[in-house]
Description:
The chain is an alpha/beta fold. It has 24 helices and 16 strands. The longest helix has 32 residues, at 187-218.
Amino acid sequence: xxxxxxxxxxxxxxxxxxxxxxxxxxxxxxxxxxxxxxxxxxxxxxxxxxxxxxxxxxxxxxxxxxxxxxxxxxxxxxxxxxxxxxxxxxxxxxxxxxxxxxxxxxxxxxxxxxxxxxxxxxxxxxxxxxxxxxxxxxxxxxxxxxxxxxxxxxxxxxxxxxxxxxxxxxxxxxxxxxxxxxxxxxxxxxxxxxxxxxxxxxxxxxxxxxxxxxxxxxxxxxxxxxxxxxxxxxxxxxxxxxxxxxxxxxxxxxxxxxxxxxxxxxxxxxxxxxxxxxxxxxxxxxxxxxxxxxxxxxxxxxxxxxxxxxxxxxxxxxxxxxxxxxxxxxxxxxxxxxxxxxxxxxxxxxxxxxxxxxxxxxxxxxxxxxxxxxxxxxxxxxxxxxxxxxxxxxxxxxxxxxxxxxxxxxxxxxxxxxxxxxxxxxxxxxxxxxxxxxxxxxxxxxxxxxxxxxxxxxxxxxxxxxxxxxxxxxxxxxxxxxxxxxxxxxxxxxxxxxxxxxxxxxxxxxxxxxxxxxxxxxxxxxxxxxxxxxxxxxxxxxxxxxxxxxxxxxxxxxxxxxxxxxxxxxxxxxxxxxxxxxxxxxxxxxxxxxxxxxxxxxxxxxxxxxxxxxxxxxxxxxxxxxxxxxxxxxxxxxxxxxxxxxxxxxxxxxxxxxxxxxxxxxxxxxxxxxxxxxxxxxxxxxxxxxxxxxxxxxxxxxx
Length: 703
């Protein structure tokens, strides 16, 4: 009873806190808020907490409370979802409503969320600018006439819109303290929201900066104002540096650059520290408090991830596929459990000491207790370097190749296995997009063998590849394809080879031949004393976040009482804005320095309790004779020289596989996702009730 009551109570608390936080943003632009907030600051100024304590309680605490309660909620959430009979009421809201090559695939919920956010920005701008225009008078000092002054106020208010976007910008990229996981949105899926927010922020900031420079140019004050670093008020030079840094980050993050020159994107993105620092100097502490919760959570999340990725481990073995894909087998602590479709961030110091890359885990913690596997396609410079490194070791004469140290961060995945809710699953994969589905299939096999579930969904896997050699990517589920009939394993595979023509070849024969060409490399693992232990418990995350929140307030109070004279607090004396800004930075750094000992102690205690890693024998390739492959009844399909006809597949699916509530999971090229999304949109549209309800879900295998 308590197991179900407490999560419900936490949901209500989080909903109330979020509603209060949103209400704060809605009334913040009004004159009522300005008047009441000024009075509240005057009352708080002579107290121990001061006006900064008030800013902390109003702006920072609510989001930290959400992160803390969310971590507790995720810890209590069951890994296996409760299956409900019949169709889910809100399932249609996650289905595609807009499918467009420019906008992408947007669900009803996403469109409503974007509309509400744009409405919030419009409301903020309207309330601010209407108030400004009512009390606007020509400025004789700047020699601006009325239209120029109005345009300057418009530019200023666009700066506040950029600030509102910045307040939300870092929340989608949190991993350990992920606020979006409460809503069931994973890190790799929420990246798009980070991109949308960043683009909107840079648009507003650019209009704000360029328009301000234009007005200065018109009034012939540009030389005087442009290079100012004032003691109080807005620091214009800091704003210009902030804008230029943001534009560099945004330009290098464009898909055309990110995909071709990932290193440029990766390193320039770390200029966010310069961007945030100069935003603080430009906007001042009162504006910085509104955006600081996301920055604080991101900094804390980053610190926890750095600690979690230590110490390094070693690759146990590697499989090199004919299609230039690599499967890496890594040691795992037996106590580490993760859900299918989880991702692991990997760093290979011998290739790059700073670059982290995310890869889908293809193994199941229910099957492999002491190891986990990831599948990597050699496409970019980093992955090509990894393939060359492994092949170089393979060509050496040693029986066991020297250890390749790696650092691992994660795994990050959904809190529960929601795909078990469906009657049946249609998995659509293109090329290396097969990776998240391999973990789902292995998990279902483990669940079937253990008898944990009374009901398991039936599955049809559509796998589109360019060449027949890419079929070897199914190697990890080959026992499922070879040794179990469709009726028992509830799996039917349809492979489409788009750029080759053959005849008389079955899925089993093609997989057997291509698997025989897989090369296995075993590495020396004697120097590896540590296995991947994964993230700390969500309860520990919540405790660290809570302690950090309290420490920040304490340091803020101490530094303000030491460095700002008491008479200036009681009166409204002008303290240089740079001093106040530096106090926030010092408080933040002091918190990170102090709090680092808590996760370090947790990590040390966990590693101390860890048993010596067990290194199972890896690299066994499928063992079955060609005769057995031919004799086995072929129930799977392979098609050459054509792409999947999704209209036909969807039409036949209810009769071939069955089920009324069908989950459609897609991972592959954007064109494939859009094709499947369009059909799901068509199937779920209209007023007539459909015999089969298709629920669309898009998975990402690359960030």
